[in-house]
Sequence to fold (920 residues):
Amino acid sequence: MTSPRSSRRRLAAGTAVVVVALLSTAACGGGGGGKSDGNAKAPGFNAAVNKVANASDKKGGTLKFIGTQDADSWDPQRGYYGFMWDFARYYTRQLVSFTPEPGLASTTLKPDLATGLAKVEDGGKTYTYTLKDGLKWEDGSPLTSKDVKYGIERIWAQDVISGGPIYLQQVLDPKGEYKGPYKDTSADKLGLKSIETPDDKTIVFRLPKPNSDFEQMLAMPSGSPVPAAKDTAAKYGLKPFSSGPYKFQSYTPNKSMVLVRNTNWSASTDDLRKALPDKITVTLTTNADDMDKRLINGDYDLDLNATGVGQAARAEVLGKNKANADNPDTGFIRYAVFPTTVKPMDNIHCRKAVILAADHKSLQTARGGPQAGGAIAPNMLPLGIKGADGKYDPYNVLKDTTGNVEEAKKELKACGQPDGFKTTIAVRNNKPIEIATAESLQESLKKVGITTELDEFDGAQTSGIIGAPKTVKSKGYGIIIMGWGADFPSGQGFLQPLVDSRFILESGNNNFAEIKDKAIDGLFDQALTQTDANAAAEVYKQINQKVSEGAYYLPFTFEKNIIWRSSRLTNVYTADAYNGRYDYASLGVQ
Amino acid sequence: MTAPLHDTAETTVADVAADIPAKAIEGRSPGRIAWMRLKRDKVALAGGVIVVFLILVAIFAPLIVSALGHPPNDFHEDKIDPLFGTPTGKWGGISGDYLFGVEPVNGRDVFSRIVYGTRISLLVAFLSAIVAVVLGTFFGIMAGYFGGWVDAAIGRVMDVLLAFPQLLFIMSLVSVMPNSLLGFSGTGVRMGVLVVVIGFFGWPYVGRIVRGQTLSLREREYVDAARSLGAGRGYILFRELLPNLVAPITVYATLMIPTNILTEAALSFLGVGVKPPTSSWGQMLFKALSFYETDPIFMLIPGLAIFVTVLAFNLFGDGVRDALDPKGSR
Fold:
C-alpha cells in the first residue's frame, strides 16, 4: 500500500532529474560561493542521526524549507507523500501521534489531542479516547470529538477526497456501507456507525475485527480533525484549517507557502510539538541541482522532500561540508523479487541460485554505494521496524558480499537446471539507478549460466504491468526490481502487502512473488490480534524468517539518504517514524 | 589575394588541357561527372572518409575491441570510487588501458561501448533509411504517375503521417510490444521495431520528392516516345522513370541517415531504444545526465560520437547533392 507514496514520490523525483538536467546547464556557473557560516557551526557528520543535534529551546526566527516537489495535497485526508505527513504536524493534530525523539524511539505513540492512549476493550474491538481540555481551532472555536469524527469520515468520500491512505476506511467499514459525509443524509453529517461521539470530549471506535495497528493508522494525518463548517471539500488542501501550532498564511501550489503562528494553539495542551520558529516558509523550485547549491550556500535550511542530495552535489557535501550532512536510513528496502508463477522461478532452488549468485557488493555500488545507496540488506525487514533482526543472514550475504558461485551452482543442480536458465528482468525505465542494479544483477548471474534479458517497462504504468499478475506471467518476468517503504512502522505496514496471499490483486498488486503460504497468512492473523507491540514483533520476526526461507526476495540494500542540514538548524534529529527525515515539528533556528 | 585565385584557375585549365590530348574526346556518363565534382569538394570528401571509417568501425567492432578495449559488458568496479560511483582515475578514468575512460558505477569500458554503439546507430539508421526509400519511392512514383484519386489518396496518407506525433507513438508502441516476435527476442525485436517505425514515418518525405519529380518527368518527350512505341506501364515506371529518379533519391537517403541516427539516439535516451546491456549512444547520454558535474567526460564522449557522425553524414550528403545536381540551390 505504500506504492502510491513511494512510487509516486520517486517517479516525480525521476522526472525532475531529467527536466533539471535539461534546464540546469545555465545554472552550472555558480559553484562554491560564500557559505554563510555566520556565527553558527555545523555539529558534524551524522550528528542528527538517532540523536539530537544543536538541542535548544530558543524561539523565534524563520525556518526556510526548499523543495523540488510540492505535496500531492496538503489536505490531511488526501496527502500520501512521506514529507507531507511529517510537515502536516505543523497545522494538524491527531488523537495520538509519534514521540518527538530521535530514531526508533520516535515510532512509539503518544497521546496528542487525547488525554491518553486508547482504552482498548472487547478483545481489541473497541477503542475509546477522551479529548484534552482547552483544545481550540485557529479561529478560537473549541475542537470537539465531532470534528475528529468528521475529519476521519472525509476518507470515505473517495470521489472527492482522493489520494490519501484508506486504512481507516478498510478497518472501520470493510464492506463500504457508509457513503461519506458529502452524501450523508443525517443533519450533522456524522452518519458513520463505527465511530461514536457520546459527548464533545469522548470518541469511541468500534472495529468489526481487531487490528493491533489501529492506533498507528489514527496517527497518520488522515486521522486529523476537520470542522464540518470549514470543510471546502476538494479545495481544503489549499488552506487547511489549523489545529496545530502554525496556520496557513499563503500558499501558491508548486511555488511557495508561508505558515505563521496559530495564536489559538496553546503549548499547555501539546507536549509533542516544540513550535520554535515564528514563521515557516517553503520555496518550491524545479531544479534539484540548483536547490542543492542553494542549500550549501546557506540560503535555505533543509530540503522539504528530503530525498537526498543529488549526484552532482554529493562529492561537495561529503567532502567540504560533511559536518552539515546526515546519512540516515530511510526505512526503504531495495530488492529483486521472483514471481513464482513464472518458470523456473516456481522452483525454490532456482530462486536460491539467483540469491546466491548475486554480487551484493556490486548491487550496492549500483544503488550509490554504502552512503548514498545504503547497507547491504541480509533480509526483508529494515531496522526501523519492531521485530527486525539485522544479524539474521540466511544466505551469508554479509560475509560473501560478492556472491557464492559454488553454492549457487549446487542449487541450480537441485533445481534441475545445472547449466543455468533464461529469464527476464523487469525494471522501470525512468529509474537509472534501478537499471544500473538490473545490469549488475545480469552480469553476476551470467557467471553461473543464468542468462537474463532486461525489459524496461514504463515506470508510470507500474501498477498495470508488474502490478498485474497476468501481465507478469505473459511477459515472463522471472525477476522484478523494486523498492518498498512502510506507511506505518510495523510488520503489518511493511511486510503484509508484500507477502500475504490475501493482498494479491489483479492490478496494483505488491505481492509480486505471489506468495501463497498459509503459514505466513496465519502468522499475520496472529500478529494483528496481539495488543502488545513486542509480542507482535516476535511474530513479525517469524514471518520475516519464513519469507527468507522461501527465497522469494533478493534484498539489495536498506536504503540510506544523504540529507543536508543547515548550520542554523536547532533541535535536529532523524525520526524512524518519518522514514529517516528530521522531525519537522521539533526544528528551530538560531 | 589574387595570386592563389590565379593559381587555381591555371591548374584547372592545365588539368583540362592535359586530359584532352591523352584520351582524345570521350563521352562522360552523368555518374562520372558527379564523381569528379564530388572529388573536388574537399569538405564532402572529408565527410565521406569519416563515414567510411565509421562503417568499418561498425563492421569490425569485435576486432577493434579485442585489440584496444575490454568486452563491452564487463564490469570493472575496481576502477570506481564506491562512495560516489565515479571513476577513480582523472578525466573519467581515461588511460592507456581504457582509451575513453570507464563508465560511472560499473566501470564498463567506454571505448568498447562507443565502438559497439556505432553498430546500433548505423544499422538502425541505414535499415530505416532503406525502408523509407523503398516505401517512399514506390508510393511517390505511383502518386506522381497515375495522378487523380491515387495521388489524392496517397497524398492524404502522407499528410497524416507527417502530422503524426512520431516520438509519442513509438514510446507507447514499444511499451506494449511483446518480448519476442516472429522468433526474435530482446534487442533484435527492439531494433526491428525501431527500424520499421522510423522508416515508416520517414517515407512521406521521400514520397513527396519522388512524386514531384515524377510529375515533371512523365511529361517528357522520351516518356511520350516510349508510350507511343507501345511500352507498358511497368516498363515506363521502372525502366524509363526510375533511373532518372536515382539522383534525388540518393541525395535524400544520404541526408536522411543522420536524422535517423538522431532519432535513434533520442529514443534510446528516452528508454525505448535497444535494451541494456546492449550499448547505444543515446542510452549512454541518459546515464551521463546524473553525472554531468562529477564526470563530464562521460557525457562528452557519446555526445561527440553523435555529433561527429551526424556532421560527417550531413557534409557528405550535401556534397552528393551538389555533385548530382549542380544547379540546385543550397
The mean pLDDT of chain A is 87.
